[in-house]
Design a protein that fits this description.
Layout (H helix, E strand, L loop, with lengths): L5 H4 L6 H14 L5 H15 L2 H12 L1 H9 L1 H7 L13 E5 L4 E6 L8 H4 L9 H9 L1 H7 L9 E6 L5 E5 L11 H5 L4 H5 L12
Parallel strand pairs: 1-4, 2-3
Helix pairs in contact: 4-5, 5-6, 8-9
The structure holds fe (iii) ion.
Fe (iii) ion (FE) binds next to loops.
Length: about 210
Amino acid sequence: MSHDHDHDHDHDPSSPALRAEALEALLVEKGLLTPEEVDAVLTQYGERVGPLNGARVVARAWVDEAYRARLLEEGTAAAAELGIKGGPGGQMERLVVVENSPSVHNVVVCTLCSCYPWALLGLPPRWYKDPAYRSRIVREPRAVLREFGLEVSKEKAVRVWDSSAEVRYLVLPERPEGTEGFDEDALAALVAREAMIGVALVSGPAVTP
Ligand code: FE
């Protein structure tokens, strides 16, 4: 059975939007939150943070070998070095950074729900919460990545990382060619959210003929 009509969603008790609304109402009623605080969190992670923090982390790792080593060793502490910490529910307490290489491609999912490192990437994209992505990326990662336009060569292993309330993952993409002279800000500008989830690569600068 499908719910094709928007008005159905408003009354479907399994609808995430309705459940979120119910939770907000309950927390406000119990005096634990104000509607203004909820709005502030949404604005913070939806508009202000975006994926920029994650891009800064990636760019730093590309230019600073010692930072890269610390990032792969202890993600939470390395992110905090750049002033990035927190997020709702202590979700940055255990950040694990997984590195792409010529032999390995990493991709992140939350099979259970939609756990995601908000402090690094902002709010998760809609497809990340889609049940089809959450189940298929585990069973047939190469096929799903192909649908995102990413063909991973047979020689490369694909590793799928399942996020949880305890552990959040960030993919450290490979630095693209043609960026040798780039400073950190220029590098960060190349790094899109999708590359840090692992459904895309980072492309180098457009080549001008
Ligand atoms: Fe989740």
